[in-house]
Specification:
Chains A, B: This is Sorting nexin. Chains A, B: It is a peripheral membrane protein. Chains A, B: GO terms for molecular function: phosphatidylinositol binding. Chains A, B: Pfam families: BAR_3_WASP_bdg (PF10456), PX (PF00787), SH3_1 (PF00018). The structure is a homodimer. The first copy, chain A, is α+β, with helices and mostly antiparallel strands. The first copy, chain A, has a domain of 55 residues: SH3 Domains (SH3 type barrels, Roll), CATH 2.30.30.40. Chain A has 16 helices and ten strands. In chain A, helix 11 packs antiparallel against helix 14. Chain A is globular.
Chain lengths: 596, 596
């Protein structure tokens, strides 16, 4: 059967990968849906056949969405961007009364913040957050910050695709060079792998979350499941805080080793992860990290921003550089996860770090995949040891966090943009210029030497030394960014990714607040009982404590991280200038010019 | 009478000056020849009328040249570039047997070195200096180094034009901005005023030198005039040297004052020049400096490179900046002239520096203008206290100097090119980037301040301070070139100008050597007597001593100047890096980040 489908986003084929370049709006014929690994085979109107990421194609989505839309009948209109987390967690069994989906009409906007900037009152001005730039920009939704959109999306790997070696990360390895300008050139932001670029993964065609819930599932659930999991929240000095373990979990990602399968036809890289608790290393491939990410997103994404893994296509001109960079970023991701008291304490995270053998790992995986306390139901495990909050206060807090994370996202992006430009200048034109100055001094010096005039060797020696010093300075300038700017960029890049998750997390929160605001109306129309209304208010208070605990966790980490990276950056800058000045002093002392 | 004339070089009109843009090869009609000040009024084929520099128009030249050519009948062909010095000093009364003029056919080449790279043997390879790039490039001859050709030529002001106020330097003032790229963009060299760009002035239409002589006039002169002037050359440690005065003449150019004439309609700037000998200031306008330059060129140009005055169109966005820059360069020019034992001891130079009153000055001027010991006859005043040199040695020395000055010219131009680029980067994109980094830090800091999270003021204070530091660094970076690169550029610019005079000076020398080489042939054809031949050899030896003394003077000055400027440059660079590093240290100390 030839299925026609529309292309949702531009996709540029990578040469030699049997891929097909497609344009947004183009109609293609699906020629093979069972490729796996997040890819399908398609044919364009010119008869060319190749692989396209499933996510970029409308075909299997249209059905679900259209089915969904027929069941939606609400005067309230919430303009939703393609927020993958929300997509997953809106239950199709629980009818989302209050949402109408404009997914493929107006809302392929690229601003994740539009989720909670939308107008909940059906047309009147909302007083929560203004979005003067408009929520729909018509840009590809693949890039939540509108800056990076050329790379592959990370094809979602469901449990069934686990043993499919098609997308082996080793084969996927692509080099894109330093902090080079984004190919899209849209905002000059970086393309260091989409890791931190897209907030959470897009996997529209899988919608695992649709079997679970929107916030209503939790808010209106008659009987909350009574599991073993308990996530207490305390009132600390700074407000609501998670319960932090006495000693912080940490792990070291190291020792990448090349392995192979299928008689050497398929190769991959295995990393060794050693937690400080057991001090016993476990091995994982990139795809296992990806599996972990999916589980954490499913389970905690409603309450905790789970940053994306570093992209498959990390930077690096050479194999070693590529592996080193990926490892560095996997380390960064694991460190962040370890630091989070809820994530690090979860069963799925623990099994990942401490499985004893293959069987243990398989059992753990199966158990994690069957976990039902996912999506908004995570809130059912949260137990704030504090009095219920007034809904007005809940709303105020939410608004505050929304404003802050949006503002910080802007600030971080500004640093990334200017940092990228600085990186380019410091590794390109600037050292080249110092080199040329150095050469020019040396050339003039050797002309002087040829004069035949006696007694100028002191001058020519000094000039040659000055020339060499400038060549040294050139090298120092070119190498400096790796010593300081790199870390500033990595940290901000990580925060860009983290901040990209907040729209989803805060979105769930805001949808719940909206629901509570509607409560009176729902009671009046007998859709819920007055008792339900009370339950909702209590539960939205729990959600607020969760958000506050999470924000406080974010703030304390942010202060730690920025404190560390700013200190490192400035110290290295000072060292640099000191070294340059002492290099020249060295020169002046050693090859002192003839005194005047 | 409507005189038609051909345009020799491209000329771009400056807006608002009633000038007319003309192209090389274009025919124009001369509408007014009595404009004065080196300008004529012309009308192009489109009927547009405007002023064009006389030098750019062929009209009154063609006559003289054609007259000249009818008298020339020699098999020897020396390809001459438009060397103004040589042009002036070929006597039309003494028939220049060995030269045929290709002035307006092939030789409007822009390479001043072509003067002595030409083929003296009438077609066979010359073994003196090779000129692989070819001597005729078809570029405008206005720029001897092929780099600067857009500015006005400095119209020659003969004695008769002295009181013409038309070209008042104040009216002529034009601003062209820092070390901006040359408009012509030909070689990326600088257009800081053509001062050092064109070697010696082009004033084809005046040919005062035609009343004087080529090297033959001196070589074959039956009876050398016996004047009071004596210029001894001694054998010093480094070889032949000028006689240096016990105390070196110096002067200070300062205190520029605006004066006016014609009831304020014409204004000008008068500079105060104070020599260290009298300590009594004299006043001079730019045009007086120009008069002095012309006299020195006439008198010493065969033996001593006389660098051009700073161009009328020096740099400067504002009046003060313009005046300051011109003064600085006039000071540089005067210092160089003072340092030269022959120039500084000359009567014309002394009268310029020490005239007592207007009458004294007028008398001195008249006397200087009547001086007959000009052109190659200056060699008649030179008395080397050393045995005559073998012609082979003379030739070797000449070749050595020619090679050296050409090589140094290349080296200097390289520094100027890279220096100009560095100047642009340091005053443009680089500080802008530091500023943006500073702003980005401060912006993020103020976002952090808005978090509402307690206890982050230490971080935000430190981040704000870091941001401000980067703004300070931006300013330091932008201001640094004025403190160091400026002087490196000025010195090299001055040397570029000086080196541009050598082709003429060495050209005279080489023509003389050629003449001596021909001596046997001339004796054989009875054009000269064997005794004449002996005289020629002796006199060319004197010329060689002169050139050697001049080269030794050049070398010693060069070593002094480069030693000084390189020290200054490096010291300032070190200071800069020290200041930047201590600025950051200051920051770290004062607003120390919270310890980790």
């Amino acid at each position: 059967m030839a299925v026609k489908a529309q292309v949702l986003y531009d996709f540029s084929a990578e040469p030699g990968n049997n891929e097909l370049t497609v344009k947004e709006g183009e109609t293609v014929t699906i020629t093979n849906q069972s490729i796996g690994g997040g890819w399908i085979e398609a044919q364009n109107s010119r008869g060319e056949v190749g692989l396209v990421p499933e996510d970029y194609i409308e075909h299997d989505l249209t059905l679900s969405i259209h089915l969904l839309q027929t069941r939606l009948d609400s005067p309230l209109s919430l303009s939703l961007s393609l927020s993958p987390y929300l997509m997953r967690h809106f239950s199709s069994s629980f009818v989302p009364h209050i949402f109408s989906f404009h997914l493929f009409q107006a809302s392929n906007g690229n601003d994740p913040w539009s989720v909670w900037n939308a107008d909940p009152s059906g047309g009147t001005n909302n007083n929560w957050a203004s979005n003067p730039e408009g929520t729909q920009t018509g840009k590809s939704a693949a890039d939540p910050w509108g800056s990076i959109s050329q790379g592959h999306p990370q094809a979602y790997q469901g449990p069934g695709a686990e043993d499919d070696e098609w997308d082996d990360e080793w084969d996927d390895m692509k080099s894109t060079g330093g902090y080079a300008e984004s190919e899209s050139g849209e905002s000059g932001a970086m393309q260091r792998g989409g890791a931190h670029a897209s907030s959470m993964k897009i996997s529209l065609n899988k919608f695992p979350g649709f079997s679970k819930s929107g916030p209503e599932l939790y808010l209106l659930c008659k009987q909350l499941p009574k599991g073993k999991e308990k996530l207490p929240i305390y009132l600390g000095e700074v407000g609501p805080v998670w319960s932090y373990p006495e000693s912080q979990l940490d792990c070291v990602v190291a020792d990448p080793k090349k392995g192979s399968k299928m008689y050497g036809l398929k190769s991959y890289i295995e990393y060794q992860i050693t937690p400080n608790t057991t001090n016993r290393p476990v091995n994982h491939r990139y795809k296992h990290f990806d599996w972990l990410y999916e589980r954490l997103l499913d389970k905690f994404g409603s309450a905790i921003p789970i940053p994306s893994l570093p992209d498959k296509q990390v930077t690096g001109r050479f194999e070693e550089e590529f592996i080193k960079m990926r490892m560095e970023r996997l380390q960064g991701w694991m460190t962040r996860m370890c630091r989070h008291p809820v994530v690090s304490g979860s069963e799925v995270f623990q099994i990942f770090l401490t499985y004893k053998d293959e069987k243990d790992w398989k059992t753990g995986k199966r158990k994690a995949e069957k976990d039902e306390t996912v999506g908004v139901m995570i809130f059912s495990t949260i137990e704030p040891e504090a009095p219920d909050l007034d809904p007005v206060e809940v709303e105020q807090k939410c608004e505050q966090f929304s404003k802050f994370t949006k503002a910080m996202d802007d600030g971080v992006k500004e640093i990334l943009t200017v940092g990228q430009e600085h990186w380019k200048r410091c590794t390109g034109p600037l050292p080249k210029e110092y080199q040329r100055i150095g050469k020019a001094f040396q050339n003039l010096s050797s002309v002087f030497t040829s004069s035949g005039y006696q007694g100028e060797s002191t001058l020519t020696d000094a000039m040659t030394a000055a020339g060499k010093t400038y060549e040294e300075i050139a090298q120092m300038v070119a190498e400096q960014p790796k010593k300081d700017l790199h870390f500033l960029m990595e940290t901000n890049n990580e925060y860009k990714g983290l901040l990209g998750c907040f729209p989803d997390t805060i979105g769930v929160h805001k949808a719940a607040i909206d629901k509570v605001k509607e409560a009176d109306k729902l009671v009046a129309t007998s859709k819920i009982t007055p008792q339900d209304k009370g339950t909702m208010a209590k539960r939205v208070s729990t959600m607020s404590y969760t958000l506050q605990a999470e924000m406080n966790h974010f703030h304390s980490n942010r202060i730690y991280d920025y404190n560390r990276v700013m200190q490192l950056y400035l110290e290295e800058q000072v060292k640099f200038y000191e070294t340059v000045s002492s290099t020249s002093i060295f020169l002046l002392t050693l090859h002192s010019f003839p005194s005047l």
